[in-house]
Amino acid sequence: MQENKNMRNNFLFLLFFILSNSTSVAYGQDVEKKNPKGQLYFLWGYNKDWFSLSDLHFESTNSNDFDFTIYGAKAHDKPRFESVLNRNISIPQFIYRIGYMFSKHPNMGIEIGFDHAKYIMNQNQVARVKGKIFENYIDKDTVLANNFVRFEHTNGANFLMASFIYRKNIYASPSGSNCFYAALKPGAGIVIPQSEVALFGKNQNNNYHIAGYVTGMDISGRYEFRKHFIAETGFKGVFANYLDVLSVGESKANHHFFCVEWLFSIGYQIAL
Known about the structure:
It is a single chain. By secondary structure, the protein is mainly β. Helices cover 12% and strands 58% of the residues. It is built from 1 helix and 17 strands. The protein has an 8-stranded antiparallel beta barrel. The chain has a 5-stranded antiparallel sheet with strand order 4-7-10-13-14, with no helix packed on it. The radius of gyration is 28 Å and the shape is elongated.
């Protein structure tokens, strides 16, 4: 008799324990649904760039040695994607993104992005040069040879931007493990170039320097697998204005350009 009573008490206690925990879990899930904290993600990838023509202005700041402009200079990038195969993942033109999708508006968010794009003026091209160079005034087509001028944001034109994200779901599998989104990302920020410049036979490799501002927009497609793994690719249009570029000695340079980037990245996201 006593044994049956003990068994009944143990059964009631076990039932109470199961119901209590079930209620707690259900309540926790309900609270989580009502109060989600959004999603945080990180992306790493690479870029390929095409630059518009640019007018490059050089001026000596503490003397009257020179003040001239190169009109319509051509430039190219330097992707070096082959370095990834040698495990040098930071050598190519890389990008990274840290983003947060809002809890109440899951198709909207904010993103901080860094684009390491290399801008290299084409050497030995012919361009119009106008202005004062030492004792001479020049206004003619000129070969941009090494003994005259070389201009590169070799270690990056470097766009640091904050962007707003709006995305639209294009496809979701019945299980929800495969999703595809289209996204727009308008943004703005600063340029932090590391510029290598040569003027009249003197070369200077400058430090990283906040030199101006950048605006742009990404148009991309994004694939999500099991809500965690991400692959993203698309194009980005950029306007970058370098108002204060470090040059040779005490001289400064400035220029601006439009740029189209092809972007590819992979990453991971978590629900907070």
